[in-house]
Write a structure and sequence with these properties.
elongated, 2 domains, Immunoglobulin-like, 5-stranded antiparallel sheet
């Protein structure tokens, strides 16, 4: 009686998009199993189990059945939905595909790294630029770790911890004025905003006379 020795197998996994996925969105992970024997290769059958080192969930309870592919191996796909981790806004989840083997093939596994972005949206806030950097035709930096170096402020250097975004900004005082056909806003001017940032000042003329300006900081 001849005893068949199972062929060795190799398992790989790849997720698309491969660059990164935003937490809460789906990425499709495809596992591929091939017979790596030198001769007498056959198509692997059975199931794949997918798991992640990070927080998230797979469709199909993390299991799928292999089917023959045109590339010469057997494949199956599941979607992976990572959950947000605000304390770690950028993380790398290791996706593992484990093949349990069949009567003709040995078990094998493979891994792939998927970058996950946990984006937190604020309800309000303002991007600011240095008042001395706000010149027509000049390139400006609205946000970044080197904001304090790249923005010139008339009031001095900004704290190195400030990256160019203020979660709260002063609100302008509403302008009260009477209705007059001669009322019209005039040209804007530049002023100073949060951390010496850029503000917009609107000069109203009421009844042909200048009224106190309304200033909007951003």
């Amino acid at each position: 009686m001849q005893v068949l020795t199972p062929h060795p197998s190799a398992t790989t996994v790849a997720c698309s998009p491969s660059t990164y996925v935003v937490a809460g969105k789906q990425t499709t992970c495809t596992a591929t199993v091939t017979d790596t024997a030198g001769v007498g290769k056959s198509m692997p059958t059975g199931t794949i189990s997918l798991s992640s080192s990070g927080s998230g969930s797979f469709s199909g309870a993390g299991k799928c059945t292999l089917t023959e592919s045109s590339s010469g191996g057997a494949t199956c796909s599941l979607t992976y939905t990572p959950t947000a981790t605000p304390a770690t806004p950028v993380r790398s989840d290791i996706i593992t595909a484990a093949y349990g083997g069949d009567s003709l093939h040995t078990p094998s596994s493979g891994t792939a790294a998927e970058q996950v972005l946990s984006i937190t949206l604020l309800s309000s806030g303002s991007f600011v630029i240095g008042d001395q950097s706000a010149k027509v035709g000049a390139a400006v930096t609205f946000w970044g770790a080197k904001w304090w170096k790249l923005n010139s402020l008339s009031g001095g250097t900004a704290p190195s911890s400030f990256t160019g975004f203020a979660s709260s900004t002063p609100q302008p005082t509403p302008l009260r004025r009477s209705v007059d056909k001669r009322d019209e806003p005039q040209a804007s001017e530049l002023g100073t905003g949060p951390h010496g940032g850029h503000s917009l000042e609107l000069d109203h003329r009421i009844g042909g006379k200048r009224s106190p300006a309304t200033r909007r900081r951003f």
